[in-house]
Specification:
Layout lengths: L1 E4 L5 E6 L5 E5 L4 E5 L5 E6 L4 E6 L5 E5 L4 E5 L2 E6 L8 E5 L6 E5 L1 E2 L2 E2 L3 E6 L5 E5 L11 E6 L6 E8 L2 E6 L5 E6 L4 E9 L2 E2 L10 E5 L6 E6 L5 E5 L4 E5 L5 E6 L7 E7 L5 E6 L4 E6 L12
Antiparallel strand pairs: 1-29, 2-3, 3-4, 4-5, 6-7, 7-10, 8-9, 10-11, 12-13, 14-15, 15-16, 16-17, 18-19, 19-20, 20-21, 20-22, 23-24, 24-25, 25-26, 27-28, 28-29
């Protein structure tokens, strides 16, 4: 595993580009940034708040889940989000033009209720996107979250899963027929079969929250994810400081830790000419890693 960049301010939401660069957010810095193949970092756009998950949409813009901002602390030499700032007003979905750096706010609410802490995003082949809203936390309260489906033109946003406990990473299966969601604090990977765009089958969970693909044991937390061409859900596991791979049948198949211990390993994306390069964000240490994966990753819709 090689270091591609250091000094990043809590990187997340990596997107592999065909020129070899990686676009990602720096949550603490409030920016959408680009890491060149040689490791140079430049700012594409000032997003403000807390830019979190990111994905390229059908119009070529980068769509960002902005959580509205965190308060921060350095604990055991690791940068960590610890709460909600007094300046917080709402979360939002933003769109960034990669050529100009212009930032547009697409959504701040659904059915008259503010978005709380949008976290991660994935586009389907129909041009719509699913995204998670983790919620926000304060000293004495932790909000429940939701999952949404929306269009890029601001005309349609629907809350499709609610309530759900701290939904974080989100991804689609290779055939686009299954939606995966990672719950942070329960350390459960859940899935739903997709009946039609934005319409989910209810699932088998007796409490009405889809289906459980896999539940991690011990002191573990889940963050964002990607899917490889074999259908493995590759999810960032926070306490372990690794990326864990879970098969579509619910078997833990691999655990890949980062070289420098970091409980804030937050995301993974795939890229390269053969899609076998994996890029991993070690957010607490501000590092972007690159490593080889055992198979090709799934190329995301519109990430050409």
């Amino acid at each position: 595993m090689q270091i591609m960049a250091t000094g990043l301010r809590f990187p997340e939401g990596p997107i592999s580009m065909d020129d070899g660069s990686i676009i990602l957010v720096e949550i603490e810095r409030g920016t959408l940034s680009r890491v060149s193949p040689t490791g140079d970092v430049s700012v594409i756009a000032e997003c403000g708040g807390g830019p979190n998950g990111a994905a390229i949409g059908p119009d070529g813009r980068v769509y960002i889940c902005n959580n509205g901002g965190f308060t921060w602390a350095t604990i055991d030499d690791l940068l960590r989000p610890i709460g909600t700032p007094d300046s917080y007003t709402t979360g939002s979905i933003q769109a960034v033009d990669l050529n100009t750096g212009v930032v547009e706010t697409v959504y701040t609410d659904c059915d008259g209720k503010h978005l709380k802490g949008p976290n991660d995003i994935v586009f389907d082949i129909h041009g719509g996107f699913y995204f998670t809203d983790l919620g926000k936390r304060s000293d004495d309260a932790l909000q429940r979250g939701a999952v949404y489906y929306a269009s890029i033109d601001g005309s349609r946003i629907n809350r499709i899963i609610s309530p759900i406990e701290q939904p974080n990473g989100i991804a689609l299966s290779p055939d686009g027929k299954r939606l995966y969601v990672a719950e942070t604090f329960s350390a459960k990977l859940r899935y739903w079969d997709i009946d039609s765009p934005g319409k989910l089958a209810p699932g088998d969970d007796p409490f009405g929250v889809g289906n459980i693909l896999y539940g991690f044991q011990g002191f573990e937390r889940l963050d964002s994810m990607a899917v490889d061409s074999h259908g493995n859900v590759c999810v960032a596991t926070l306490a372990t400081g690794a990326v864990s791979a879970v098969s579509a049948s619910g078997k833990l198949t691999a655990i890949l830790p980062v070289p420098e211990p970091d409980v804030m390993v937050t995301n993974i994306c795939f890229g390269g000419s053969d899609m076998r390069s994996a890029y991993i964000t070690s957010s607490g240490r501000g590092i972007l890693y690159k490593t080889n994966w055992h198979c090709s990753g799934l190329r995301l819709n519109y990430n050409a």
